[in-house]
């Protein structure tokens, strides 16, 4: 098997950075599930290449395991970046600890899910026209749950 080499950098423009963007993608995006990951897909408003966001909760493991999982996801994204649609915003949710899995294992799982991801993204592109906002016209933006955002909690003591 040929050695996998990530190409390019993982610059700020390649990342989903703001909490509001994560909430929008997770609230209105399409979901593709694989054994180790959940891919949340949304059509981006920008013409730039695909953007990646990563979520790894504490059930993935301790801090070192979560950081390793996120590092492997970033490296896998850089490795297969050319196969993602250009206007894709993707949030990858790590479902479980990656254990002893290597980059090649993560990339293989992503490639196994690639047909479903491309099909789902094509549906998103059909739902939203070229001038429509991300998420299309058929999705109604969900209001974030106040319990998740911390809104409505009393301040001070």
Describe this structure in words.
The chain contains 4 helices and 4 strands, in the order αβββαβαα. It has 157 residues and is α+β, with helices and mostly antiparallel strands. The protein has one domain (14-127): Ribosomal Protein S5, domain 2, CATH 3.30.230.10. It has a 4-stranded mixed beta sheet with strand order 1-2-4-3, with helices on both faces. The longest helix has 25 residues, at 103-127. It is globular.
Task: Characterize this entry briefly.
The protein is an alpha+beta fold and 157 residues long.
**Class by SSE composition:** alpha+beta
Number of helices: 4
Just name the CATH architecture.
2-Layer Sandwich
CATH topology title: Ribosomal Protein S5, domain 2
Whole-number tally of structural domains: 1
Number of strands: 4
Helix % is: 25-40%
Low-confidence stretches: 133-144
- Give the overall form: globular
pLDDT average, as an integer? 80
